[in-house]
Amino acid sequence: MNKATYTEDVPEDRFELLERIASEDKPLKVMLIGGTDSGKTTLLTFLANGLLELGFRVAVIDSDVGQKGILPPATLSLAFPEERFKSLGDLRGVAHYFIGTTSPGQYAGEMAVGVRRLTDIAINEADVVLIDTTGFVTGPGLEMKRLKVELIKPELTLLLERTDELSHLRKVLAPYTEIIDLSVSQKAREHSQEERREVRKEKWKTYFSNGELIEVDLKKIAPTGTEMFLGRPLTSEEKDLLAALFKWLVIAGWKNERYTVVKADMESFPRHYSKSVIHTVDFEKLSNLLVGFIDGDGLCLGVGIFKWVNFSEMKAQVLTPLTPEELEKALELRFGRIRVIETGEELGLLQRKEL
Q: Fewest CB within 10 A of the end CB: N or C in the chain?
């Protein structure tokens, strides 16, 4: 299931744009920016297929983590299409960068760095690099787009808008790139939140369809993206004191700049403590949490679902479709912020500060 599929039933200016891109000096970086359901992915698919037919080597970077086309979900992905394709879902990613959530508002830095990393790979092999982005264009989304454009400096940035809703973004981006203004196609259709969830559900289900439960040795593969595991383990006395003070079942804990405690509440009542002194992680929120397997270059080999952890032995159980050969390359297990099960149902998002 994909929102956008290949079509040549597009406004006339899209054909003119294709000619313009084909005539530019190569290599060329082109970023597509627009609000939700503005037709960015449809336009990218049209341009990619047109450029392929003209004999150009094309790279596609899918950074729309909310409506990901190229698997796995919650990552940024790079693909090199070799022939005409119907949708981004038909492409196989050759490199990925882990974000770990489908709502990247708190991850502007990672989003920008990830696109830059994939662009650096793509530009060495492609004539044209087409970069799809999220529909997040206001507030933190505007800053995310600015960071991406400032880091990557695309020669062309395609700005799709319905009226003049991106006028401020246009001013912000103008110093770093040439902007081409495009009107949203009248054929662009808005999708409901439920439709979006169903699309994501199918993507998750497809990715994990061949998943197997594996044991991960956290002494060999470093856990990252969380304050857990940092510092010295808490003593039995410290755990007992925290349990008595706050009526917690203290499952694990560490002392670094502050105490980090993995706990379960034994009683329900307001607890008052300084967040600068104690950081808590609810044990139940670790179940079915998305994690990424990261290689020595900081790229994502694939993702998994965190099922269980034995803190004393530093062993975790993770469901993943990665092969043993792929897992051998993993140096980090990076914690994401979305909980999902292998059938595709999303159980909820975590705030960055929760881990």
A: N
For the chain, list the domains and their CATH numbers: 12-207 (3.40.50.300), 210-355 (no CATH)
CA-wise closest residue to 96 among 68, 128, 123, 124: 68
> pLDDT band at 160, cuts 50/70/90?
very high
* pTM score: 0.94
Q: Among residues of the chain, what percentage have pLDDT more than 90? A: 87
Question: Helical H runs in 157-235?
Answer: 167-173, 193-207
Q: In this structure, are strands 232-233 and 222-224 parallel, antiparallel, or unpaired?
A: unpaired
Which stretch of DSSP H or E encloses residue 71?
A: none
- Residue ranges of alpha helices (H) inside the chain are 12-23, 40-53, 108-123, 140-152, 167-173, 193-207, 236-246, 324-327
**Which band of pLDDT confidence, cut at 50, 70 and 90, is reported for residue 1?**
low
144, 9 Cβ separation under 8 angstroms: no
Cβ-based burial of 44 (10 A; exposed 0-12, middle 13-18, buried ≥19)? buried
DSSP state of 337: E
pLDDT surpasses 60 at 36 = yes
Measured torsion, CA atoms of residues 173, 174, 177, 179, in degrees rounded to the nearest 10? 100
